[in-house]
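Let us practice reading a record.
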Amino acid sequence: MEDKRYCRKCLLKDFDEEQYRSLIKKELDWMDDEMKAPDDMYARRLEICGDCDKLNQGTCAACGCYVELRAAGRRSSCPYKRW
């Protein structure tokens, strides 16, 4: 079996669907819609995180969060105030 190596600059959504689902997708699906950021805001936040030097295999090296979960929260914010 071949070991997969992941890019340090990748978001978890870039992993294969099974891994993504088991790590993050279920949590996003369980979030109450009223707590979620609008889709355009979420996408913009992920774009900013994708360009950040603190992104490390889907987590933020500044705070340790899964950036895709933090970005999904309507009232969430970046620890570096980038969004």
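A brief commentary: The longest helix spans residues 17-30.
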